[in-house]
Amino acid sequence: MGEVVNNHKEPRWNIYKGISKLSNELFSWLIRSSINNEENFRVAKLMAKIVFTIFATNLIGFILALIEPKNKLITTVVFYGIVFLTLFGFVTLLKYGKVKTAGWSLVVFMWCVVGFATLFFGGLRSQIPVVFVVVIMFMGSFLGGRAAFILSLITIFYLGLIAILDSYDHMPLQLGPEYSPLNAWSGLFVALLLMSVLLNNSLNSIKESEERYQLAVRGTRAGLWDWNILTDEVYYSSSLKEMLGYSVAEFSDQAPSFAVVVHPEDLESMREALNKHLDSLQNKYDVEFRLRMKNGDYRWFHARGEAVRKKHGEPHRMVGSIVDVTERKLSEEFIALKNEELLKINEELDRFVYSASHDLRAPISSLLGLIEVARLEKDPASIQNLLSMQKRSLQKLDKFIFDIVSYSRNNRVGLEIGRIDFQELLNDTYDQLQYTEKLKELKRINEIDKKILFHSDQKRIAVILNNLVSNAIKYSVTSKPDAFIKTIIKRQNRG
Fold first, then answer.
1. Which residues are CB-contacts of 129 (< 8 A; sequence separation ≥ 6)?
2. Residue among 457, 466, 398 nearest 426 (CA)
3. Which residues, other chains included, contact 193 with Cβ-Cβ below 8 Å and sequence gap of 6+?
4. Beta bridge partners of 301
5. CATH number for the domain including 299?
6. Tell me: the pLDDT tens digits for 241-296?
7. Closest listed residue to residue 291, CA positions, set 335, 247, 246
8. Residue 3 counted as domain residue
9. What does 312-350 look like in DSSP terms, one character per residue?
10. Quick one: DSSP state of residue 173?
């Protein structure tokens, strides 16, 4: 076996990776797991980077200050000693999860240090005031633009005061030289490095937010919109326009352009839901409507949104999303249609059971009557006649049961259209029912127009006649004299 040679070379140590790894380890050590608020977590991570950068830059500045012969040793040691001790205090606060306290303390400390250095180490002639920009940037990252603006005004007023003192030679005793190349370079070094950290953090946050936004949009397949209520301008995301079949340039960023594609039947309900939400936060904007695609077809969409309001509750902006729910709507319509069909089938089944019960009970009742007569009959010929009648009744009952089985297998018996002989059907019906108890006491009257040419399914007409006659027998009052059953079949002049 040959010796296996590993041609893979170990990567050289990269200074950027080393600093990043050290920063991450410091962050993991500083930030406690108890920080579960996303905003506090972001601020804590930023402060950990700032503390690390301040420590590194001030360590370099301390070394350069020791090298500079014009600097006083005691002043340098005291100044940087205070800085390092304060940084240790910030580390302690972060270690115990005091994020807001650490943030405010860091802002106040940085501003006071820079203000002190500006006042006692050269005034506006030095490069130290540049660091004020870093403090203001951090204030903006920590508390937002308004807080940064207020701090900017305070800083401008403070620097203006120093300018006035310097103009009238009223500056306090300077603790350092008026100008030193090393001091100037170290001041700019600190300012530029801190600015790069803050800018890099802001850009990374924006990039992460953008990536998170894109992933969320792609994952939910939603189209987003952002409506400026004051100017009536609307931002429609490219995904929303693509859902409707339009390119980015084809769909205008104006509110009326969206109303044009809403189905006319849904426009009023959509506007009503929108106005209710704008009038009160209690009313959620959650509505479904149809939108016209570029090709002219309509599809169902589910829209949600929420208004951004001023202090007094007046809405000035609204943001929301729409999702294509056409497939769900079609499924709901299909289920509703099937439910309606099931209800019809149940109604037909009820009618079928009712009819079948009559058709089954009538021959059974007749058979019971025949059996009772045959039991009392002594003449063999009469008994044979009764047995033949029983056989015919059973054959008809068997045929009816066969039709029921066919109906259950095929949902319905196929129509067999033919000419109907009503007299024959009535005779068959009476044959099946002739031994029912009340029929013997009833007179039968049939009035059938023999000129009628009627075509239909003989089985179904037989079922109808059987039900009518059996009900007439069942509910007849035989106690009345001359009780009868009368069947009339004739043409009516109704077209």
1. 114, 118, 159
2. 466
3. 53, 56, 57
4. 289, 324
5. 3.30.450.20
6. 888 888 877 887 776 678 888 999 999 999 999 899 988 877 889 999 999 998 98
7. 246
8. no
9. TS-EEEEEEEEEE-HHHHHHHHHHHHHHHHHHHHHHHHH
10. P
Contacts 24+ apart (CB under 8 A), 390-395: 392/431, 393/363, 393/366, 393/367, 393/431, 393/432, 394/363, 394/367
Question: Across the strands, what pairs with 226?
Answer: 235, 319
Residue with tokens 């030095």: 126
Alpha-carbon distances of 272 from 158, 257, 269, 309, 329, rounded to whole Å: 55, 18, 5, 19, 22
- In our burial notation (b when 16+ CB lie closer than 10 A, e otherwise), range 21-57 reads eebeebbeebbeeebeeeebebbbbbbbbbbbbbbeb
Sequence letter at residue 292: R
Same domain, yes or no: 31 and 149: yes
Distance CA(49)–CA(194), nearest Å, equals: 9
Q: Measure the N-to-C terminal CA separation of the chain; round to a whole number of Å.
A: 105
Provide CB contacts within 8 A for 471, sequence distance 6+: 358
Kindly state the tokens that stand for 44.
């804590």
Rounded CA gap, 353 and 303, in Å?
48
Residue 9 lies in a domain: no
| Per-residue pLDDT tens digits for 109-165 | 878 888 887 888 777 777 777 778 878 877 777 677 788 888 889 999 998 998 898
DSSP helix/strand/coil, 490: coil
In a domain, 495, yes or no: no
| CA gap 281, 308 in Å, rounded | 10
Is 186:61 a contact under the CB 8 Å cutoff?
Answer: yes
Instruction: Assess whether 212 and 226 both reside in one domain.
Output: no
Tokens of 400: 């009816």
Structural domain includes residue 104: yes
By the 10 Å C-beta count (0-12 exposed, 13-18 middle, 19+ buried), 79 is classed as buried
Based on the fold, state whether residues 456 and 373 are members of the same structural domain.
Answer: yes
Q: Pick the closest to residue 33 from 90, 95, 87 (CA basis).
A: 95
Q: What is the distance between the alpha carbons of residues 42 and 141, in angstroms, rounded to a whole number?
A: 10
Closest Cα partner for 467 from 483, 487, 447?
Answer: 487
Domain boundary among 216, 244, 278: 216
Residue 462 predicted with pLDDT over 90: no
Domain that holds residue 121: 15-216
Residue 485 belongs to a domain with what CATH number? Answer: 3.30.565
Residues 143 and 44 in one domain: yes
**Residues making up the chain, counted from first to last:** 495
Which single residue is written with the structure tokens 């790894």? 21
Phi then psi for residue 153, to 5 deg, are -65, -40
* Count of structural domains, the chain: 3
